[in-house]
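Entry:
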Amino acid sequence: MARRCVARGHEATVLCVKDRGRAGIDSYVEDGLEYVEVPDLLPGRMRSGWDLWDLLNRWFYLKQHHEFDLIHLVETRPATIYPLLWLFRNKPIPLVIDWVDWWGRGGIITTNRPGWYRLLFGGIETFYEERFRTLANATTVVSEALRTRAEGLGVVPDSIFKVPIGVDADQFPRISPSVNRAEFGLKPEDQVAVFSALDGLMDVELVFDAVRIVLQSCPRFKLVMTGKYADQLVCRAEKKGLGEHFVHLGFLPQDRFVRALTCADLFLLPFADKIYNHGRWPCKIGDYFSVGRPVVSNPIGEVLLIMKDQEAGVLTDIDPEHFAGGIIGVLSAPEKALKMGEQARFVAETELSWAGIIDELERAYQYALIGSSA
């Protein structure tokens, strides 16, 4: 988003955590965008906004650099919100707060965090997620569920703007599924479904159970996954009896990731009827649509809003039998699947294009600036 703002003539600085390093603030400019990297001390998920050293370094940076016209804050955890509260005491600056996932109150913390984390941080996560929302001059959300939740917390409805994750469809070539399959050990005659998930444990059981049913009528079917937890997911797939019908490619660099996606005959996007799915944006749907293949998913949250009026795939009931039926239906009707893929590509180039999404982001910025000066 920042890179695209720079391309439109804005000046932008991204303040973020270092990949490595425990001391020193580093800054550099790339393609006109300034990056400022601050250090932290904690490991793993504790780096995500809870680190005191991160907080102090952000405070120190903002103390020295406070010439910004506007600040766009991604989530309101201690390391990000407290330095801003100090800054605003001395110099109020128009503030936009981004809400990118439903974390507390039955959200992602219930499924994507270990038990000890939920026990220690469940209430704290919810507090920081909700407490500071009304401080924003404008709010950006990725879903209608988060819009409704923000309004319930007292955020002015007119100050809320929907700014989801966009896609550059041109980065994904429109080629036959067979072109890149040899690179990943797949055969031209395989019937391939790809399920790409950074944190692949969410709703994966629905996919595994559905694949077992699909194999009864499609013996050449293969499920291909990318993302984290490869060893764990391979073990789970073996226990389900998927064996050679399951391939996990691990976490791929962007160029290989794109080539892996082109191997698909269809894509899978399981979306169980859970709070976290109603609140989040289906990040991979833009990539899937860009490749020009049908998507099999469920009518929940933003997936329903995107696909209900589009012949770009199949929405099924949330159970293995119906999900498997959606997969088999796509594989058994290649001409219809081709048309759905063409429609998917069209949606990626239009409704999900970054161009329109950045238009909405600029409207949010303009609202924050005008509202703050009024």
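The first strand starts at residue 13 and ends at 17.
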